[in-house]
Amino acid sequence: MIRSxxxxxxxxxxxxxxxxxxxxxxxxxxxFEVYRAERQSxxxxxxxxxxxxxxxxxxxxxxxxSRPEARGLRHLAFAVENLDAAVARLVAAGVAVEPVRIxxxxxxxxxxxxxxxxLPLELYEA
Length: 126
Description:
Elements: E1 7-12, H1 15-25, E2 30-36, E3 41-48, E4 51-57, E5 76-80, H2 83-92, E6 101-102, E7 109-114, E8 120-125
Parallel strand pairs: 1-4, 5-8
Antiparallel strand pairs: 2-3, 3-4, 6-7, 7-8
InterPro entries: Glyas_Bleomycin-R_OHBP_Dase (IPR029068), Glyas_Fos-R_dOase_dom (IPR004360), GlyoxalaseI/FosfomycinResist (IPR050383), VOC_core (IPR037523), YwkD-like_dom (IPR037478)
Domain VOC: 4-126
Organism: Sphingomonas abaci
């Protein structure tokens, strides 16, 4: 029935800041961008491998309920080849990154950080 993950939608509080974070800092290519006047909303499609992130802005979106154990989406995880290089890039840009951990089941290294709206994001060395 399900073939693959197509996209994840994120609503941000400051479109310009979040677009810069995802496209420039994380290096996700912009596929498409449009302002939808009827919704007072920007929409930007960013490539994440074969999948996409849809980045939205809306007037006065409510804050996330709590972090990280609220019901619903817990976090987004991005696969990276070199975790140390990715962490160094984030830290150099002033992004707080948690200490690197090792997944006890796979032996892979991973860490967490937040986007400009405190959405929890993970880097997973694959």
